[in-house]
What we know:
Blueprint: E1 7-9, H1 11-23, E2 29-33, E3 46-47, E4 57-58, E5 62-65, E6 74-80, E7 94-98, E8 110-113, E9 117-120, E10 123-126, E11 136-137, E12 148-150, H2 158-166, E13 171-175, E14 180-184, E15 189-190, E16 201-202, H3 205-215, E17 221-222, H4 230-243, E18 246-250, H5 261-268, E19 270-276, E20 278-279, E21 285-289, E22 292-297, H6 301-319, E23 329-333, E24 337-339, E25 344-353, E26 359-363, H7 372-377, E27 380-384, E28 389-391, E29 396-401
Parallel strand pairs: 1-19, 6-7, 14-17, 14-18, 15-16, 18-22, 20-25, 23-26
Antiparallel strand pairs: 2-13, 3-12, 4-11, 5-7, 5-8, 6-10, 9-10, 19-21, 21-22, 23-29, 24-28, 25-26, 25-27, 27-29
Helix pairs in contact: 1-6, 3-6
The site of adenosine monophosphate has 19 residues, from helix 3.
Amino acid sequence: MSHDFPTRISFARAQEIVQAVALAHPVDVERKPLSRALGRVLAQDVVAEIALPGFDNSAMDGFALRSADGDAPRRLVGEQFAGRSGDFSLAAGECLRITTGAALPAGADAVVMKENARIEGDTVVPAQAARAGQHVRRRAEDVAVGDTVLRAGVVLDASKLSLAAALGHHDLPVRRRPTVAVFTTGDELRAPGQPLAPGEIYDSNRVLLQTLLIAEGYEPVAWPVLPDDPDAMAGALKDAAFSFDLVLTCGGVSAGEKDFLPAFLQREGQVHFWKVLMRPGMPVLFGRLGEAHFLGLPGNPVSVLATFLTLARPLLDTLQGRAQPRPRLRARLSADVSKSHDRLEFLRGVLACDDEGRLQVTPNPADGSHRLRAAAQSNALVVLAEGAGHWPAGTLMDVLPYAGLDAGR
Length: 409
Ligand code: AMP
Ligand code: MG
């Protein structure tokens, strides 16, 4: 196939191209109520229009008083509950019953816990003198008016959303979720649950891609398996390109007789690159089809996992304007590793914390890109740099977690 697009490029170059393309095509902004905004990327800074706390208030249930009165008994002059705006003002020798979150009365500068005071009729006797400021939450000690509390590009999690709520926001401007059409390809594929004929295998990549996407908050739409037929493929893919931000395929991108996708994309769209010097995942194809981004992942299951995590996910992150970096972890190898080829390699391994709290990664020796069990028994990709090399046990390696760090794998 004659071509004029980059091929056999370095992994770093592939990531740069993905970034540049995604930056040029940000998805739109929409407003979402806070309870629907989990995992979304914030589209604008949030600047506080009110202070937090909004007024000096009590951190305890007890008695508001003046620290200058020492441990002298106080005259109880009333009560102040959270949510009430009673206009109390304390004079010397006075105190006020108060609940957590209730506004501190004028004149008071400390709170004594209920448990540390004795009540005798209308008199309250503190067990000891209160320090000025004791159990008092000061106005604006958390957030002052005008503070930028959330930056555009952060991913909204529960605590960030509740901060926005505390500042009075009912909804927030967020990036729309890119829409993704998922295709698996190959005459050999059968849906799980159906009988297999000789030579057939179950389609495992469909659920792999669907759930990788769902775990990131997307709502992928999966098509029936595409046969290895150029016309049938072209029809379905062009159709999807009309209505989705990303057309994500797997299989049909290497150099076999039935790998029609690179030529198809060159003919019907635009190829940004085909083939990246990485392992697994070398034949990955990236380009544009109509109005959609097109990412053709290889067919081998572990290649799908590696290329999804290292190319598809960053593409989707950047389309949404995500500025918050993914955690980049480093862990010590617990066994020697070597490789004789030049490509960047993503090995599977088990990432765990040792008894001293250090991250350790145990590479799985089953490194074939069809070895799905090794991937299921692992929880991270271990990055082996370009060039042949030997990494003795104890070497600090970059790792990319793809599942939880729980024990017992
Ligand atoms: P291909 O690039 O289409 O030649 O596929 C490479 C390898 O991955 C072949 O062994 C395919 O049978 C296998 N494969 C392709 N698609 C899937 C899929 N959806 N589920 C499981 N294995 C697949
Ligand atoms: Mg195939």
